[in-house]
Amino acid sequence: xxxxxxxxxxxxxxxxxxxxxxxxxxxxxxxxxxxxxxxxxxxxxxxxxxxxxxxxxxxxxxxxxxxxxxxxxxxxxxxxxxxxxxxxxxxxxxxxxxxxxxxxxxxxxxxxxxxxxxxxxxxxxxxxxxxxxxxxxxxxxxxxxxxxxxxxxxxxxxxxxxxxxxxxxxxxxxxxxxxxxxxxxxxxxxxxxxxxxxxxxxxxxxxxxxxxxxxxxxxxxxxxxxxxxxxxxxxxxxxxxxxxxxxxxxxxxxxxxxxxxxxxxxxxxxxxxxxxxxxxxxxxxxxxxxxxxxxxxxxxxxxxxxxxxxxxxxxxxxxxxxx
Length: 323
Ligand SMILES: Nc1ncnc2c1ncn2[C@@H]1O[C@H](COP(=O)(O)OP(=O)(O)OP(=O)(O)O)[C@@H](O)[C@H]1O
Ligand SMILES: [Mg+2]
Known about the structure:
By secondary structure, the protein is α/β, with parallel strands linked by helices.
C-alpha cells in the first residue's frame, strides 16, 4: 500500500526504526476524574494491538490522545517519530480513526461520504477517484454506493466506516470498538480485512469488549480505571495467570455459588449453564480443597480447568468483581 502523504514527504522517514507509538506517563484528567492515569505504551509497527477493559476504563480517551484530538494533561506521545501534541497537525493525516459512534454523514450516499472525506483529507481528484473505486471493491460496497448510511445494515455500515478510515491510506489505524454491532461471521471477515492491512505495514490499535477478538491481537493492553494493569501477547497473559480456575458442575448452583463465595478465596464465581467457573485468588495451595469441601454432599463434580483470556480480564480488573 502506498502510504505517502503530504506529511510523509515533510519527514520522509516517519521515525523509521522506532516503534509505531510510544506513550510515556500518559495522563488525562477531566476535573476530578482521572480518565487515563500514567500509562506507558510501546506499540510495535505492523501489528494489531488490542485494548481491553471495562466501560469507562479510558480506552476512548487514550485513542483520542494518541491521534492528537485531545491534549494529554501529562505525559508524552510519539507517533511514527512525531511528538504529540507539538506535531499534532503532522500526525493527524498519518492516522485513520474509526470512532466508537458511527460518524459519517447521514445525508450523503456511501460514495458521497467517501468523496467528501477524500476532499477533507486533501486527496487530489484523481487519487480520490482511484481510492474510492478501490475501497468500494475491497470492502464490498460497490452495489451500495448510492445508498445512504441509514439504509445500510450494521455490518455494511461498519465496512463503510472502515473504508472511510483507511481512504487516505494512513500507516496507523485506531479502531474504537469497531465490531460492537455485528454478528460473529461479519466480525470474522472484518478481522480478515485488518490482517490484510497489516500485510501492508499498517499498525492497528483496536479496542474491544470481545474476548475472542482480543485473542486475535498480536499484543494486548488491559486497562482498568485509567491504569494499564496488564500487557503482553494474549497467550503469554493466559500462561502467566497465577490464578487457578475450577469448574463445578451440578444442580442447585445458586446455593453452591453462595457457599463458595463465602469462603472468601475466589476472585469470581460465574455461572455458565450447569457449571460454575471459579477463579481462585492466587497463593493459597489449599484453596481447591476448600472449594471441594464446601460443595461436598451436593453431588456436584469439581475439576481444574484451563484459564482463558476472560479469566485474565477478571483477574486484572476490579470493575467486574462479581462477589
Ligand atoms: N469529555 C469528557 N468529560 C468528562 N469526563 C469524560 C470525558 N470523556 C471521558 N470522560 C470520563 O473518562 C472516563 C473514561 O472514559 P472513556 O470514554 O475513555 O472510557 P472507555 O474505556 O472508552 O469506555 P467504554 O468501554 O464505555 O467506551 C470515564 O469515567 C468518562 O466518564
Ligand atoms: Mg469507549
